[in-house]
Amino acid sequence: MKARHRDEDTHVPVFPEPAGRFLRILQDKYLYPVMRASVYRVLCLVCGLFFIAGGAMHFLKPGFYLQISEGFLSGMLCWIYISGVAEILTGILFLLPATRHRAAFFTLCLMLAFLPLHIWHLWSDVMPLWAAFLRLVLQAGLILFFSYLYRHSVRKIPRSPAYKS
Fold this sequence. Notes:
Elements: H1 19-60, H2 62-68, H3 77-95, H4 100-121, H5 129-152
């Protein structure tokens, strides 16, 4: 007698046979990639708008960024404007489908460039320790998210005219 698993009796297939096999193939081959592509497009749109708005805030309220970088950048307004331009450009790259792979890479570089500031906040008196720790954890989460987005984004590399398919 064949040993049975406990869950075998309660397992109900998503689609009944024989159409179930065809529908599962259809679902795996066409539905899931479309859903993933839609989620990816929405994530890129949200990231693009978020970074454009965040970069614009560097120009609209530079005092806030001067306050949180006090002691680390010694009040250098130039770096705040440069990071604002970088965020706006990265946001624009996210909005263009052909440059989303590069946008994820540049955003990952930006997050890694901002990491020393967030680590420095742990030892400075600029903000409470809990807020500095929360910002550092958020930064680590963003680094992981954008590295995932970079690894799973599709490169749009134009083929040369000599390429034969």
